[in-house]
Design a protein that fits this description.
The chain is elongated. The chain is of the alpha+beta class and about 625 residues long. The chain is built from 24 helices and 16 strands. Among the domains are: about 230 residues, Penicillin binding protein transpeptidase fold, CATH 1.10.3810.10; about 110 residues, Beta-lactamase, CATH 3.40.710. α15 packs antiparallel against α24 and α17 crosses α22. It holds the Pfam family Transpeptidase. Its main location: membrane. One of its GO terms (biological process) is proteolysis.
Length: about 625
């Protein structure tokens, strides 16, 4: 009974077709005051292009795909019509819409045949849809089985034919059609089922994937291979009967053994890729004015703007872009291996960032053990107390700049008290007057506090401003921060970026993972426009590099040392051994390594082995 009602509906729809066509074509003096159907369609359905959700790609420094971004579960790689083999175009036209080049978007004759076949078979298997109708359904409408949707489909199809060429429509269809298993378009079908581009398929393979869209679930090559193979043979036979291929081509294609070779989506280096997604959002916000708007918005407006920005980022990714990054796969792997080799305690976590300070590019990032994409990334989302790793930036640089002192200048390492604040040295010993080099490489605390006290807290903090540390608050403006006692602390990324100024003569430029964003044709879309800022003078930088080298040569960081044109850095250990840091640089790279537990807890047992230093050494010792 249901099938009879459906067939009756089809007959009604078919009967209405001439009237619909008549309305489309209606013109004359008596209707001059009435808008033409075409005008109404242009007003109600403005079509400037055939929108196609495409995959986006994150590329490493070599231009290789590091991660393929599939949007809205539509796994698609768009390919222009001229790059598709003629066999693909021919098969779909012969099997789906033989009058494609003659009809106006829908085919009354084809609809009539479909109704007659359905009536004869008591079914609704024959839909009579043209390629244009299928494109309208796949891109603009839904697959709801209703006559309202079918009428909308006819209107869209007619409008598509008026707006675009047959080649544009065929190109859109072949890129939009569904091939099961989340695969859309002939190119992705070729890549997914045979692991090669559509232009490299044999005739047999081309016919095989072309068999799928007629009924994707029924002709799923993975679970119903034999069904797909039988339909492939029918398609080859249609090509033969239509004299599109020779008998020899037919026999060769029919005899060819089909071997499925499915391709999994490329998605490597999750630590780094997670950050790239976050940085892309920052880049779009910066380029399109969201950053300024957010800085001035109240909490309610910020929520609205952030949601708007989120949608905008999704739209950019759906359009199909290439995100060109500075990711160094070899270095990224080396960082991961270094943590595996030296941080064996399963309860202790770690994080690291490596920057090429010459190009201001983030080359590698480690977000934690067993990291999964979009998990909490300790490399840029974990804020920890820096301990003595902050001394070069907050104590020594301001002191050297304002006093003109050098590594051999003397300073008191005796006990210091300011009201109730009486810090002690790391080993709780008392020292007299020492050189700045000795105080620095042995990480004495009282000289560092004296330096900030002499320079002034406000003045000292002014040297941190160019780095834009995100978690510094007004409560931090006090002497205890001179040895790392901040309210929240810093992320490994923030600390690494600040240290990169030591590799650039005291000039700071924000380091980025993303070099540029282009569309799939290579046209530029987004690029950072960072301006360098001089933070301290060249003479100060020279002195600081000497101090940093003293740490690795004969100070607290000797386990990080290795032969290189330059090696220098600073250790950092927080109260109760909750955090262990090493931040430093070579002639090419700046890197910071943090180890600790997510819930602050002592790791004093690891301190003497210094895994953070060994990790840093292994990361930076080879280039």
């Amino acid at each position: 009974m249901t099938s009879l009602r459906s067939i009756t509906g089809w007959i009604c729809l078919l009967a209405m077709s001439p009237l619909l066509i008549f309305l489309f074509m209606l013109s004359g003096e008596e209707v001059k005051q009435v808008k033409a159907v075409s005008t109404v369609l242009e007003e109600q359905i403005p079509l400037t292009d055939i929108p196609m959700i495409q995959n986006s790609y994150i590329l490493d420094q070599n231009g290789s795909i590091a991660s393929e971004i599939v949007n809205s579960r539509e796994n698609r790689r768009f390919v222009p019509l001229e790059e598709m083999p003629e066999a693909v175009k021919t098969i779909f036209i012969v099997s789906e819409d033989q009058r494609f080049y003659d009809h106006i978007g829908f085919d009354p004759a084809g609809m009539t045949r479909a109704v007659l076949v359905n009536a004869k078979n008591q079914s609704t298997d024959q839909g009579g849809s043209t390629i244009t109708q299928q494109l309208a359904r796949n891109v603009f409408l839904t697959h709801e089985k209703s006559y309202n949707r079918k009428l909308s489909e006819l209107l869209y199809s007619y409008h598509l034919e008026r707006t675009f060429s047959k080649e544009d429509i065929l190109e859109g269809y072949l890129n939009a059609v569904y091939f099961h298993n989340g695969v859309y378009g002939v190119e992705m079908a070729s890549q997914y089922y045979f692991s090669k581009p559509i232009g490299k398929l044999t005739l047999a393979q081309t016919a095989f994937i072309s068999a799928i869209p007629n009924n994707p679930a029924l002709y799923d090559p993975i679970t119903r291979f034999e069904n797909t193979k039988k339909r492939q043979e029918r398609l080859l036979n249609e090509l033969l009967e239509g004299k599109y291929i020779t008998g020899e081509q037919y026999r060769a294609a029919a005899a060819e053994k089909i071997r499925i070779n499915t391709q999994t989506r490329t998605d490597r280096y999750p630590d780094y890729i997670t950050y790239v997604h976050d940085e892309l959002k920052q880049l779009i916000a910066e380029e399109e004015g969201y950053t300024i708007k957010l800085s001035k918005a109240d909490s309610a407006e910020k929520e609205r703007l952030n949601e708007q920005l989120k949608i905008r980022v999704q739209d950019v990714l759906k359009s199909g872009v290439r995100i060109h990054t500075a990711l160094d796969p070899t270095l990224q792997t080396r960082v991961s291996d270094a943590f595996k080799n030296h941080l064996t305690d399963p309860s202790v976590q770690g994080a690291s960032v490596v920057i090429d300070h010459r190009s201001h590019e983030i080359k590698a990032m480690y977000g934690g053990k067993d990291y999964k994409k979009f998990d909490f990334n300790r490399a840029y989302q974990a804020y920890r107390q820096p301990g003595s790793a902050i001394k070069p930036l907050l104590d020594y640089v301001p002191y050297l700049e304002t006093t003109g002192a050098g590594p051999n200048s003397m300073i008191s390492a005796e006990p210091f008290c300011d009201k109730e604040y009486c810090p002690k040295n790391y080993d709780e010993k008392t020292y007299g007057r020492v050189t700045l080099e000795t105080a620095f490489k042995r990480s004495y605390n009282t000289p560092a506090v004296r330096m900030m006290n002499e320079v002034g807290v406000e003045k000292a903090f002014s040297y941190l401003e160019p780095f834009k540390f995100s978690r510094i608050v007004k409560e931090d403006y006090r002497l205890p921060v001179s040895i790392g006692g901040f309210t929240y602390g810093f992320s490994p990324l923030e600390l690494t970026q600040a240290y990169s100024a030591f590799g650039n003569d005291g000039v700071f430029s924000k380091s980025r993972a993303i070099k540029s964003v282009t569309d799939l044709e290579g046209n530029p879309l987004y690029k950072w426009k960072d301006e360098p800022v001089r933070v301290w003078q060249s003479a100060t930088n020279t002195k600081m590099r000497a101090l940093l080298t003293s740490v690795t040569e004969s100070g607290t960081g000797t386990k990080a040392n290795h032969p290189a044109a330059y090696t220098g850095g600073k250790t950092g250990t927080t109260n109760d051994y909750n955090d262990l840091w090493f931040a430093g640089l070579t002639d090419a790279y700046t890197a910071a390594v943090w180890i600790g537990k997510d819930k602050a807890e002592s790791i004093e047992s690891l301190s003497s082995a210094a895994p953070h230093q060994l990790i840093w050494r292994d990361i930076t010792k080879n280039r």
